[in-house]
Design goal:
260 residues, 19% helix, elongated, 11-stranded mixed sheet, 5 helices, single chain, alpha/beta
Length: 260
């Protein structure tokens, strides 16, 4: 089995990296950064997202160990290395599939696990029309908007007032960012959770410059008057599942501070 490791710099992480690599090599695995069958990320959620952006087209199995502050996307912690190795070496390991978002613009196709964000690049307010399945929803004047998956609902979407959605539900969520409401512009001003087959289209963008953020990457857009189309794609990432995890317990530990 071919594997590689994506990691964040740090002495403790290096120790974990060496421990994992040595054990896999002893088990007969082969290190291969060009065409890996398993991609292991050691770090936080950002490390995991960068590994996905680099390797998802190869359709490897992704496995992640958290060393970040939150690590909400990560299945294993550094205290669970023995469980991690036991699972990854097992012929009966459990994996889950997560659908990626796809955005099309400027003749490009971009993919994201968490979200796409359309935002101002120079402090200006953005103005554009929003359509869902070719039906007009609103003309939005705001700092921008976000489209997330259920996995991404606990990230920036939550910070903007979106709903946290059970990560086993396939859906997309549309969230406005600081919308302006007055006699000229009016919007729904509420997170909009949609069925997984819905297509969100941004049209008639009035601004000459803006940014599109997708997971750990950014596209700076200039003088583009075309559409931005965002939907769930048919591409999925395969992730090694830690069957000892409890989603509700993990949500509590991530966002609620126990004072007792």
């Amino acid at each position: 089995m071919r594997f590689c490791i994506s990691y964040r710099e740090g002495e403790k992480i290096k120790k974990t990296l060496n421990f994992v690599e040595e054990n896999l090599l002893k088990a007969g695995f082969v290190y291969d950064e060009i065409n890996p069958e398993i991609v292991i990320s050691i770090g936080g959620d950002g490390t995991f997202l960068r590994a996905i952006q680099k390797y998802f087209l190869l359709n490897p199995l992704f496995a992640n160990i958290n060393f970040g502050n939150l690590g909400y996307l990560c299945e294993y912690t550094n205290e669970e290395l023995d469980d991690f190795l036991k699972d990854i070496l097992s012929k009966e390991y459990v994996e889950k599939e997560i659908a990626l978002l796809k955005a099309t613009y400027q003749d490009k196709e971009r993919y994201a696990l968490n979200e796409f964000r359309v935002e101002s690049s120079n402090g200006d307010t953005l103005i554009f029309d929003v359509f869902i399945n070719d039906t007009y929803l609103e003309t939005l004047k705001a700092d921008g908007c976000l489209v997330s998956t259920s996995i991404g609902s606990s990230a920036m979407a939550r910070s903007l007032g979106g709903a946290i959605v059970d990560n086993e539900i396939e859906m997309i969520q549309f969230v406005e960012k600081a919308p302006i409401q007055n006699r000229t512009y009016e919007s729904i001003r509420s997170p909009f959770v949609l069925q997984k087959d819905k297509v969100i289209k941004i049209e008639n963008i009035k601004n000459n410059e803006f940014c599109i953020y997708y997971d750990a990457k950014t596209d700076f857009i200039k003088n583009y008057k075309g559409d931005i189309v965002i939907k769930l794609s048919d591409k999925k990432v395969r992730v090694l599942k830690n069957t000892r995890n409890n989603y509700i317990k993990k949500t509590h530990e991530a966002f609620i501070y126990d004072r007792n």
